[in-house]
Design a protein that fits this description.
With 545 residues, the protein is an alpha/beta fold.
Length: 545
């Protein structure tokens, strides 16, 4: 855990945070822990306060080895006494290898590496100009020199059990105690949920084991992917992870699918196409199906590729993902077929702006319209998300007794879009009275300003823009756009036009594309949707002068 200079932090703030985590684990998971995990918690709690703090200081750092003589933590009275206790209780280990390992060499400075090299090599002077990594490569597996005092070098042990406690608390291995620090420094504000309302993320030991096993293998994959032969990597996946599929708990399915896609893409980029195809064949996501079709095409197995594209077209709903299958089939039905998005872009209106706007093309188009007397501003996803997020705030956070597992959630894990469909309809009806709904949204914003909401983007909260959108877009069309977003938040809360322009009663949403830019499938979807709903929309292609 890094030091913090915030004046309101206690000197042992990290200990407070970990105790919070341990209380949570004891309350929700005590009877799901195995003997080794229970013993870790009990042994840690039996340590002296100083030893607990010392262990947490070491465990919260990213380095592996520490020189005990250089450790300085002002809040720990006797570091040496605390370290001796940790060593005696098996929480800290002393360097015991007879050779220099990569993990140790990487924490040494370049001068230290040079000093070691001088003690073991007569040619060391000619090597001083080498980079640190080159010195490490030379010293790896060299015998420990006499001048090296191994007893000075220590590392925290039982780190897997330490991280396991945080994993139980967050339900993920990707988050840690730094979340507490970020919140308490004021960098993030979360909806306040009473501690008694938190429900455990895991309900069975199998859910815990499944997700933990996937997380551990994923960490190994990220660390070793550049050092392990791709074929061996795939073999490890099939030996370790793939056998889990038949009895995989529902809670771990998303992690399993993400991992298969990540490994498949890695193998594909390494040009191990057949290996990648085998991995993608076992994945169930539309993304994996797309990669599968692309690989089959490269392998000239066109009948299979077309058959799976037809399957994707029939079963995939996400417009971004669906577009690939539709377009793939269309292009192979006619060699002259042009992609729908490419065809639309070719027909786009063109405007010429100064080349000084290269790299900030949207600002160039805004200035172009402002010069013609328009109100013009950047809007893209922000205005739509802010309107929907503020309007439905109560539905997102209405039920504190389910879906909240810890105090750092952006939103409940339950499907809040299904919490109260009737109330959602009532909230949409508020849009019929534009001035009242604006006051309603401003009241919500004032009450909760800065609190993380998965839809609200506080940094892009533009009340003038919101008011103009509410006043100019017809209510039925506005309601249908928000409903479409609400029912498919994971896929439909993006892809909206870049700009909003308005002059008197004339208004339009504008999608801007620079000369080398492309129209995405989700942008294509919203372009069609706006047109069908009668919302003015224009696609602009910029040319430089």
């Amino acid at each position: 855990m890094e030091n913090t200079s915030a004046p309101n932090f206690s000197p042992t703030y990290y200990w407070d945070y970990f105790q919070y985590v341990l209380r949570y684990v004891d309350k929700h998971y005590k009877y799901l822990l195995n003997p080794l995990e229970s013993e870790f918690v009990e042994s840690f709690q039996s340590l002296s306060f100083a030893a607990q703090c010392m262990y947490l200081r070491l465990s919260g750092r990213s380095v592996t080895w520490f020189n005990r003589s250089s450790l300085v933590y002002s809040e720990i009275e006797s570091i040496e006494v605390a370290l001796d206790e940790l060593i005696n209780q098996g929480f800290v280990g002393i360097y015991s290898d007879s050779t220099l390992t990569p993990a140790l060499l990487h924490v040494l400075t370049k001068p230290q590496c040079v000093q070691i090299l001088e003690s073991i090599s007569v040619d060391s002077k000619s090597l001083k100009s080498l980079a640190k990594q080159a010195l490490v490569d030379i010293l790896v597996d060299a015998p420990l020199p006499n001048m090296f005092d191994a007893n000075l070098w220590i590392r925290p042990l039982k780190l897997d059990l330490y991280h396991f406690c945080s994993f139980l608390f967050f339900g993920s291995k990707n988050r840690d105690l730094k979340e507490f620090v970020v919140r308490d420094l004021g960098h993030r504000q979360y909806m306040e949920i009473a501690e008694e309302d938190f429900q455990p993320y895991f309900t069975t030991r199998k859910e815990i084991d499944d997700k933990w096993k996937i997380s551990i293998w994923r960490d190994w994959f990220y660390a070793e992917q550049d050092r392990v032969d791709p074929g061996q990597l795939k073999e490890s996946l099939f030996d370790t992870i793939i056998p889990m599929a038949n009895e995989l708990s529902d809670l771990a399915v998303a992690s399993y699918e993400r991992l298969l896609f990540q490994v498949g893409r890695f193998l594909e980029r390494q040009n191990h196409l057949v290996d990648a195809l085998e991995v993608f064949e076992l994945a169930g996501s539309a993304q994996a199906l797309e990669r599968r079709i692309r690989i089959l095409t490269k392998l000239k197995r066109m009948d299979e590729a077309l058959r799976w594209a037809e399957f994707g077209q029939a079963h995939v709903e996400n417009p971004t993902e669906l577009h690939f299958f539709q377009d793939y089939l269309a292009r192979h039905a006619s060699k002259k077929q042009v992609k729908q998005v490419t065809s639309r872009l070719k027909k786009a209106d063109k405007i010429i702006i100064d080349g000084s706007y290269n790299g900030r093309v949207e600002q160039g188009v805004i200035d172009y319209y402002v010069a013609q007397g328009y109100y013009a501003t950047f809007c893209e996803n922000g205005v739509w998300k802010n309107i929907l997020g503020l309007l439905t705030w109560e539905l997102i956070f209405t039920d504190h007794s389910s879906g909240f597992h810890h105090p750092f959630q952006y939103a409940p894990t339950t499907d809040f879009t299904q919490v109260n469909p009737a109330r959602f309809t009532q909230l949409l009806d508020l849009l019929h009275d534009r001035s009242s709904v604006l006051v309603h949204m401003q009241t919500i914003a004032s009450r909760h300003y800065g609190v993380i909401n998965p839809l609200v983007e506080w940094g892009f909260l533009n009340w003038e823009l919101i008011e103009k959108v509410l006043m100019h877009v017809e209510t039925p069309a506005l309601q249908q756009v928000l409903t479409c977003m609400w029912l498919r938040l994971s896929t439909h809360a993006k892809g909206f036009p870049d700009l909003f322009i308005q002059r008197e009663n004339e208004f339009c949403f504008v999608e801007v594309k620079s000369p080398n830019d492309h129209l995405s499938a989700i942008q294509h979807f919203w372009h069609d949707t706006f047109a069908e709903l009668g919302i003015p929309i224009q696609l602009i292609r910029v040319a430089w002068k």
